[in-house]
Amino acid sequence: MSVVEQVEQYARAHVVTDSPEAQDVVPVLLRYDPEADPRAVRVSLPGPGSDHTWTVPRDVVERGLRAPAGTGAVRVWPCGRVTAVIELHSAAGARVLQFDSKILLRFLRRTYAAAGVPVTH
Predict the structure, then answer these.
(1) Over the stretch 94-111, which tens digit does the pLDDT of each residue have?
(2) Are 33 and 63 in contact (CB under 8 A)?
(3) Residue 112: count of CB within 10 angstroms of its CB
(4) How many domains does the chain have?
């Protein structure tokens, strides 16, 4: 039986907000743990006193790089030619983050490679 590895990737995202007090760029940890949920990735934002983590369906991130995807607590959509937006909702509020699309695509490719799934795009 083969062991499927976890994938972690640190990234930086721009916070989309109209608040002058908000940070413009925040560190983000993208995680994939196939033993916990092979169909999802986790997006974590470190914060003062605690981290905020959302579980996001992996296929929503992938589809969202090409066209708007997701409903409810998680939405992903392309923003121009080189960026993508992930909108995350929780009881504490909403976060809207803009990523370089290449970072998300590289992370997704690593998750599929770790799970032994051929990557065709």
Answers:
(1) 889 999 999 999 999 999
(2) no
(3) 17
(4) 1
